[in-house]
Specification:
This protein is α/β, with parallel strands linked by helices. It contains 17 helices and 19 strands. The chain has a six-stranded antiparallel barrel, surrounded by four helices. A five-stranded parallel beta sheet has the order 2-1-3-4-5, with helices on both faces. Helix 9 links the parallel strand 6 and strand 7. Helix 10 packs across helix 12, helix 10 packs across helix 13 and helix 12 crosses helix 14. The chain is elongated. The two termini are 36 Å apart. The model has no long low-confidence stretch (mean pLDDT 93).
Length: 478
Amino acid sequence: MKGTGRRLRVGVAGIGLDAYWPQFAGLEERLIGYLRALENKIAGDKRTIVNLGLVDTPEKSLEAGHLCRTQDLDLLLVYVTTYALSSTVLPIIKRAKLPVILLNLQPAAAIDYERFNAMEDRTAMTGEWLAYCSACPVPEIANVLRRLEIPFHQVTGMLHDDPQCWDEIEAWLRAAEAVNTLAHSRLGLMGHYYGGMLDIASDLTQVSGRFDLHIEMLEVDELTALRRGLSDEKVNARIKVFREFFEVGEDCSQLELVRAARTSIALDQLLEARDINLLAYYQKGTGVAENEDTMSSIILGASMLTGHGVPVAGEYEVKNVIAMKIMDLLGFGGSFTEYYAMDFAEDIVLMGHDGPGHIGIAQDKIKVRPLRVYHGKVGAGLSVEMSVKHGPVTLLSVVEEKNAGFMLLVAEGESVPGANLAIGNTNSRYRFPLGARKFVESWNSHGPAHHCAIGIGHVSNQLEKVAQLLQFPFVRVC
């Protein structure tokens, strides 16, 4: 699928000052070595690195900016290797028109003061100092970019032996990969909004324009048509896959498994044919028995797709399937959830949802449950029941915002063991550092839709980088 195969194209440019090279022997070569080390450290299977060289004049900077555009780069890392004039840095950033991260990376933790002060050649001493003075021009560069309202980000640390620094750089690259993949993804919409849920209604122009998503409208009729004529052999093979993927209870009838298998196969075929990377759906199907049969048997297939990197959200929840996709691209899961109830005795919030669950974040194997009626919705059939892995979790909501189009709302908490509701839904118990009451009020105060995505780990730092690359506001309530 298009949204899953494109490599992140990263430009790396070192900056310096050409006046130094004839004065300080070996300095230019040393700084070029720093840049080469950076290139090697950020290389990866999903990345193409374009080394733009050591930019030391405004003329070279302008040419490097043109190269950024001809190389179709997605991200620009500007390595501040030594002092450089802001007039040298500005042309590449202006021409490239890319997200920019300034890397203030010193070659080691500190200058060896004793060895440095023992040097007899004052010129050589200055050259040695200049090899360490990456911090010097960053205020100057930041000043100019801020005055021109050009967004930029920073990482400060050491080129070597600094895990904290390199974790931060890697987090930026992973965030850029997620944003880049999202921008090359195709969002399928099938059906219509669940009637009366005004909070989930979205402006599709904003969705497409702010996330760079292509939106493809899908017909339930097409999915229904694909279910026809599937061989018993294919259906039985899919039921076998169900039994491997899920824990299928004895109370699940063969008839329901066959219905779900047919829809699962058809759904895979439809999304493959339309090259869909994320899907939001909802349709009652009433009045057309065959469509109702399709839509009431979609949950198992949707859960399998969600667990395989193609998130599927019910209730036509466009914003939330994007949140699920972001979490999944970052490797944190991304399962559909909403408030269920509060347990004031234990100071926790119960959250979950009917419909697709993400196997990658399940505490145990996802269970398949038969339901006589979906909770408040038309239809009956097989649903899934799971709890999120016990331990740290993060909630993400894509919230509509007046000025930037959207904002990312995040909360970190813990999935904790305890009694749950065995109702054929995803269902977990969450504890938040604010306490249940304060969390609910703080979260709600920012006006999110009632759905959100849940992922494992405390990952707000990573999600904040995604928001910054998208130029969205970011709010963390806890």
